[in-house]
Amino acid sequence: MLQRMRELAVQSANASNNSDDRKALQAEVTQLRDEIDRVAKTTSFNGTKLLDGTFANATFQVGANAGEGIAIESIVSAKSDTLGETPVHMTAQINNAADPVAPAVLAAMDAGDLQVDDASGTAIDLGPIGEATTGAQRSQQIVDAINAKSSDTGVFAFATLDATGAVTGYRVWAERALTAAGDFTGFGAATTGTVTDTAAVANAAMDDVSIESYGESQLALKVIDSAIDAINSSRADLGALQSRFENAVANINITGENLSAARGRIVDADFAKETSNLSRSQILQQAGTAMVAQANQNGQNVLSLLR
């Protein structure tokens, strides 16, 4: 399911999709996320939940004596509110610039007017931006410009919408902390909306995944990759524990065989020795019989002489 969600996020990040396409893709992502939650909350063994994060500090006795156990610290929680939890830095909503009074427009911005720093502190030009008739249109222009340079800056943006689907502003996020004064050049309340410093977001997890825009798809990819890594790591840990259990079982079987062999040495007959004793007894018996027969024959010989 996570792999399918990742495929959908990659597909949504493609500019060939319009908003309706992305909403359709998001519908499948939502259903897959709900199914992951259902599996996490209902998977159990003998009444014990295994994937909801509550299975921890369990010890399995593998020997006959005290202290002979194998402990499992925990199994990763697959619930969407914690799975794939990834630390990112995100601004609060940057509200639209004020709409101009017609026939006025928000003026076009030349190359070099807007810049965003990359991780090394180098300013990256966002390029020219055309004029806009509304603040919402300008916000979408800013989002597109930031995302167009995201491979250089490591900074992403996505538009924020109200209940009716209208653009109310945008948010910017990155894997590092960003400051309005240090990382953004040329941004202002009247032209782009007031940019704020980013704040660390600790709960960017599967329940936050949205792929309804390019910027959100990029965040979704990061979260889903983190979730896949967490699942793979947990599977590796459980595989290693399974190997330990198999070795413990093999060791117990060997111990049982050794104990059975030792008991056999004490209780069971030594077949080779007893066969040798039987042969010895038979030889002695046959020899005794032969001697008796010979003695009887000697008596008969004496009687025959007396006749």
From TrEMBL:
Residue ranges occupied by any Flagellin C-terminal domain in the UniProt entry:
221-306
Q: Give the location in the cell.
A: Secreted; Bacterial flagellum
Using the record, list the residue span of the signal peptide; answer none if the entry has no such feature: none
Instruction: Quote one Gene Ontology molecular function term.
Output: structural molecule activity
- What InterPro entries does its record include? Flagellin, Flagellin_C, Flagellin_C_sub2, Flagellin_N
**Residue span(s) of domain Flagellin N-terminal:** 2-55
Q: Which is one Gene Ontology cellular component term of this protein?
A: extracellular region
* UniProt KW Transmembrane keyword: no
Quote the Pfam families the UniProt record gives. Flagellin_C, Flagellin_N
Keywords (alphabetical) are:
Bacterial flagellum, Cell projection, Cilium, Coiled coil, Flagellum, Secreted
Q: Which residues form a coiled coil?
A: 15-42
Keyword Secreted tagged: yes
Its job: Flagellin is the subunit protein which polymerizes to form the filaments of bacterial flagella.
- Which PANTHER family does this chain map to? FLAGELLIN
Q: Which family does it belong to?
A: Belongs to the bacterial flagellin family.
The name this protein carries in UniProt is Flagellin
Organism listed in the record? Hydrogenophaga intermedia
At the highest ranks, the source species' classification is: Bacteria, Pseudomonadati, Pseudomonadota, Betaproteobacteria, Burkholderiales
